[in-house]
Amino acid sequence: MTARRQPPARRLPAPGPQLRPLVSTGTVSCPACSRRYVVERYAAAFNVCAGCGHHGAVPARQRITQLADHGSLELMRIEVGDRDPLRFDDGAPYPQRLARARERTGLSEAFLVARASIGQAPVLLACMDFGFLGGSLGSAAGEIFAQACEAAAVERRALVAVCTSGGARMQEGIASLAQMARCSAGVAAVGQARLPYLSVLGDPCFGGVTASFAAQADVILAEPGARIGFAGGRVIEQATHDRLPEGFQRAEFLLAHGMVDAVVARRHLPRTLATLLHMYMPA
Amino acid sequence: MSSTTETAEREAAALAAVELARNPERPRALQVITTAFDQWTELRGDRLFGDDRAVVGGPARLGSQAVMVIGQEKGTDAMSRALHNFGMPHPEGYRKATRLMRQAEKFSLPVVCLVDTPAAYAGIGAEERGQAWAIADSLLCMLGLRTPTISVILSEGGSGGALALALADRVLALENAVYTVAPPETCAAILYRDAGQRARAAAALRPGVDTAYEIGLVDELIPRASRCGHSRDSRRVAPPSRRALCRAC
Ligand SMILES: [Zn+2]
After folding, report:
1. A165 shares a domain with A142
2. pLDDT tens profile A4-32
3. Which of A127, A273, A275, B164 has a CA between 20 and 30 Å from the CA of residue A240?
């Protein structure tokens, strides 16, 4: 299989593109309890509801600014070509779906990566964006993650990945499955360099993403209430006709079953990551 | 010919390929193990929770070479299909596989994986015991092994559940097998929110192993041994597999 014998991915020099300011659209409501917030206030609370504690979705761009030390961010621009090996059309041609996702998110792919520091520790931060085709893992996203891993190993940075994804990107078929291999090879390279890899699992995280790099981290943190697993609850219910237990596949359920190291509230994530990084990566 | 007819024909052909791959008469992992290998000694259990019969494994001889052979077994009749859970492993199956792979490395044995699964099992227990974690660990294990690894896709390689045992130095596949990112039913449920549209999903996915061969996920296609391609007589498939395996080891 090619992933095993692949030469190290070429690292591209990256002048960091500017962050696009978030445009206010007025108010948002908490998806769990419907309480309304002014957008800026909700964003200032990291998209966490003050009323019920529900952790709302966070776009990748907002995510990296929440986690990185102030002023330490340098976005990595990784050029990836578009691939449509199957000429996929599920109601709309795949290139058209990609174009729409780009317009909506301002991202080129479901992964956004940046060099940064967290608590002064040098990291390579890789964040998935669920708003980009469900955070699905296709060839380009896999390429970005693999290059991020390579850069982390070369530059002696820890790898921090925030995973929110429905899994492999169906539109690219078997090429998406190959990305699980590619991303795993990236994780292995970081491990071989004896650099820490910490993953943060957000809502939702499923399929080929959980079953590869999300679960391969040295330390796995999960956000409160996040749904995490391999197969989706609906699929399991339909296939087995079993009633799902209370809280099934929620972060707390996974903690109880020994699959994650801690459930960490979003506002505590930077501090928790920094504490771990300092112990695993003495300056 | 109208494009609707063309589409219908393409969908029918793709579905036929999937059906052929799933034909119950095709040779199964245990049949290949008992015909292509000698002195197979089955080892069981993951040493953590249980023994998953969807995955079988143990040391065997391939010619003069001792190897560790691990296979996903679908079963051959109603009873054995139930026993082997239709080749859909639980986490224990993947953990047994990684246990055997590490053992193979310790004794410098090449690892041969026979891949044959529609997908990893989707169930409450499988999730509780970390299905995704077991697969992820198997991927890392296969990547790191210092002993040669060979995988053969027998009939059906579905999703990460198949890749977990197919991340080898050399990946062979029987020519008329399928290898997909997800079974067509699951793909249809995700994309069209209707598992019934599996023919449409099958056509869109291009499930044949030739697609995987084109992108380099499969290194070599083993020509089918019999015209129908799904003879119950496993000897018909065993000789080319054995030849191919001996070459690869
Ligand atoms: Zn709320």
Report:
1. yes
2. 544 443 333 333 333 444 555 689 999 99
3. B164
Say whether both A40 and A142 belong to one domain.
no
- Chain B residues inside the 8 Å CB shell of A214: 132, 136
- Give me A239's structure tokens: 């296939």
Residue A247 has what pLDDT?
Answer: 96
- Say if CB A139 and CB A145 are below 8 A apart: no
Give residue-wise pLDDT tens across range B39-89: 999 999 999 999 999 999 999 999 899 999 999 999 999 999 999 999 999
Class of domain B3-248: alpha beta
217-236 of A, contacting B, C-beta below 8 A: 229-231, 235-236
Give yes or no: residues A143 and A236 share one domain: yes
Domain assignment of residue A112, yes or no: yes
pLDDT band with cut points at 50, 70 and 90 for residue A79: confident
Instruction: Tell me whether residues A216 and B127 touch, CB distance under 8 A.
Output: no
The Å distance, Cα B144 to ligand 1 centre, comes to: 45
The amino acid sitting at B243 is R
- Retrieve residue B75's tokens: 């079963």
Beta carbons of A170 and B190 less than 8 angstroms apart: yes
Listed by start position, the domains of chain B span 3-248
State the complex-level ipTM.
Answer: 0.91
**Is the pTM for the entire model greater than 0.90?**
yes
How many domains does chain A contain in total? 2
Assigned domain for A16 exists: no
